[in-house]
C-alpha cells in the first residue's frame, strides 16, 4: 500500500485532482486510492465504463474509434482519459481498457492505458500497452496498481508534450 500512498502524496504535492476511467479494472484504481487517508483531497471521480455504450454515453468515446481500433486499444484508452477529464473537475486522468481472460481475438493480460492532463483549456494525452501474466483477478489487480504507480512518470511526460507544443 506504500506505493499508493506515494501516489497520493505526489498528487497532493503537485496540487492535482485525479479522475479514473476504468473498464477492465472495473473501479479498482479508484478503490485503491480510497484506501489511503487524504485521498479525498486528490481524487475527484472514478468512472467504471465496461460496455461500449457506457464508454460513449459517459466519456464520449466515439463508436467509430471502437469499431476501427477495437475496444481494447490505446486509441480508446486515450478517448476515455480525455472524456473523463471533460466530465469531471479533475486535472489528471488515467484510463484502462483491456483483456483479463484469453479470448478468440485478444490475448489475456493485454492492458491499454491513457493518461491525460488538463492545463487551463489545454489538454494533452499519452498512451501505452502493457502485458500482465496471471489469472483474471491477478491481472486486474496488477493493471490497477500499475496505472496508478505510473502517474508521476506520465505526468512528467505530459508536461513535456505541452512544452513542446509551446515551442512550435
Automatic annotation (TrEMBL):
All copies of the CinA C-terminal domain together span 5-152
NCBIfam families recorded for this chain? PncC_domain (TIGR00199)
Q: Which top-level group of life is the source organism from?
A: Bacteria
Organism name:
Pseudomonas songnenensis
One of its Pfam families is: CinA
Q: What is the protein name stated in its UniProt record?
A: CinA family protein
